[in-house]
Design goal:
Layout lengths: L7 E6 H10 L5 E5 L4 H5 L4 E3 L4 H8 L4 E7 L9 H6 L3 E7 L5 H14 L3 E4 L2 H5 L5 H22 L1
Parallel strand pairs: 1-2, 1-4, 2-3, 4-5, 5-6
């Protein structure tokens, strides 16, 4: 273990990934990858990259002992995950599956899961069973809290 290398980089890929990555910022340096510029304002204090700058980000990530990527499957931006998979050795992917009703996202998510291979996943459809009457925003916040707790456990074990 090099004393000069920062321990963990946390990459939030897309809207969902960025939102969850921001919740675990105390465990590493957070990088947000998103198409939308407004995310820069939403995630002040984190380094922001557009997908066309992934090569630059990957060079930065090579300086870390471990990289964690948090993604919302089905989002267009997740298709760029191949760049990370091909270039980073110590990589862990945490992924959130979309609602069944989002048919286009579900189809894309299936392809993305095959591309990613081994990863830790959570299924948004659990909310329909565990919080059927909650407003969607409240349910997603609770879901994000649970994911955050699980990722924190993983970081503490690693």
């Amino acid at each position: 273990m090099s004393l000069n290398k920062p321990k963990i980089a946390i990459v939030g890929l897309g809207d969902t990934g960025g939102r969850i990555a921001g919740r675990i910022a105390e465990y590493g340096d957070v990088y947000i990858v998103n198409y939308d510029d407004w995310f820069k304002d939403y995630f002040k204090g984190y380094l922001f990259f557009k997908p066309e700058r992934l090569d630059e980000l990957i060079k930065v990530l090579l300086n870390y002992e471990q990289t964690m990527i948090v993604v919302g499957l089905g989002e267009d931006i997740v298709d760029s995950i191949n760049s990370f998979l091909n270039n980073l050795e110590k990589l862990t992917v945490f992924a959130v599956k979309p609602f069944r009703a989002e048919k286009k996202k579900v189809k894309r998510a299936e392809k993305q899961l095959k591309l990613i291979g081994e990863c830790v996943t959570w299924d948004l459809n659990v909310l329909l069973e565990t919080m059927p009457n909650a407003p969607i925003g409240t349910a997603i916040d609770a879901f994000d809290d649970e994911i955050t707790k699980e990722i924190k456990k993983y970081v503490k074990l690693g």
